[in-house]
Amino acid sequence: MPENGDERKKMVVSTGNAEIDTKMGGGIPIGSLTLIEGDSHSGKSVLAQQMLWGSLHDGFQLSLFTTENTVKSLVTQMQSLNIDILDFLLLRKLRVYPMEVARLGEKAVGILLQAMKRERDRDMVFVDSLTPCIVHTPVNKVLGYFEECKRLCSDGMTIVTIIHSHAVSQDLLIRITSLCDAHLRLRTEEVGERLVKMMEVAKIRGASKSTGNIVSFEIEPGWGMKVIPISRAKG
Ligand SMILES: Nc1ncnc2c1ncn2[C@@H]1O[C@H](COP(=O)(O)OP(=O)(O)OP(=O)(O)O)[C@@H](O)[C@H]1O
Ligand SMILES: [Mg+2]
User: What is the pLDDT of residue 113?
Assistant: First the structure.
């Protein structure tokens, strides 16, 4: 729960960008399991970083497991989007756990789950990304990860997991997304001469109206995700 005493306690994960939140039916409900899925460089981490920032501002306490950053590189990356997380880190509102999973092999996903369970006192846990943890993992263990996450969510935690589209087969992806409450699919598309990033709100449980919404955006230094009208993206 937010502990800032705010009467308007937000029960959704906000990106801090009203336009993007609207496309997601107002934001992802608290207590849900979300999958952010997409190709390399499609904007998965930036989206997660914006959600992280929006949630910290709404008074939630978070933990981030990252295979992509050290604490220092994360701070620098987020500063480049004009998001400064240093105060939240110092106040322990945000805990960051860099993970080196290559040497763990098949054990990685189990170790990650154990570590996530130790964060039960947190409102939200982000995993960016699960991909290196599951390269040597059999399908049933990958599904087991999402089932365990679901259990943690039913105990009140909100979990956002990022995965590369190429890391799982189409069949496994369908089984994973049926377990998840929300599925955000990111991709990069060539439109004319431009490379445009797209986010498809493939699923948000409890917000059926927003399902299927597509947002095109670009990432602007010092700003972050900036929505561009589809017509302009196509132009
Ligand atoms: N501060 C920034 N200023 C400008 N562009 C940025 C900034 N941060 C990220 N980008 C660009 O946004 C794009 C998406 O980055 P992001 O790291 O979110 O992708 P990703 O989907 O997480 O990629 P990966 O699969 O490699 O982890 C990249 O092309 C990157 O160069
Ligand atoms: Mg990334």
Answer: 98
Q: What is the pLDDT of residue 205?
A: 84
> Does any ligand 1 atom lie closer than 6 A to the CB of residue 74?
no
Residue nearest to ligand 1 atom 25, measured at CA: 40
**3-state DSSP assignment of residue 68:** coil
Amino acid at 200: E
72-109 in b/e form (b: 16+ CB < 10 A) is eebbebbeebebebeebbeeebbbbbebebeebeeebb
Task: Give the list of residues 6+ apart from residue 22 with CB closer than 8 angstroms, or none.
Answer: none
Q: How large a percentage of the chain has pLDDT more than 90?
A: 74
Which atom of ligand 1 is least distant from the CA of 43? Answer: 18
Q: Are 213 and 184 in contact (CB under 8 A)?
A: no
As a dihedral over the C-alpha atoms of residue 94, residue 25, residue 180, residue 50, rounded to 10 degrees, the angle is: -30
Q: Is the CB of 166 under 6 A from ligand 1?
A: no
Instruction: Report pLDDT for 207.
Output: 60
pLDDT computed for residue 9 by the predictor: 53
Ranges of residues in the chain with a pLDDT under 50 are: 5, 7-8, 208, 235
